[in-house]
Amino acid sequence: MDVTPTAVRQSPPAEDEIFAALASPVRREVLRLLREHGPQSVQELASCFSMARPSFSEHLRVLREAGLVSERRDGRRRLYRLEPVPLVRVRDWLDPYERFWRDRLTALRHLLDDTETTHDTGAGGHPHDSGSGPRTGQDEERP
User: At what angle do helices 15-22 and 85-121 cross, to 10 degrees?
Assistant: First the structure.
């Protein structure tokens, strides 16, 4: 049984190549299938999609060229496997943006907490006494 890789890439794919490959919902679904079910043959993967085989093969080629999947021969079958290294590069690229938004949301939460605390204490400094609550009969002026 021959299980040697059929395509060995000399240099890592460019970030643009990785992101372009991930732009397609079909290719993202292929990655999900490989993540959840492990290596699969072209036939197994293609059976999950309603498209012509040449079109599906083109999606696999794009994923392979982006380094997101590898292909190996197992007898007469070609098996595809998820390759996590390019996804680590995507995560590394996204990390600064995640930190940016996490910091912004934390600042917003603090601002809202401060606003709520100020609102709850009201002008008189007593909790829930904003001076605009219902008036009792004692507060009303008599004619």
Answer: 70
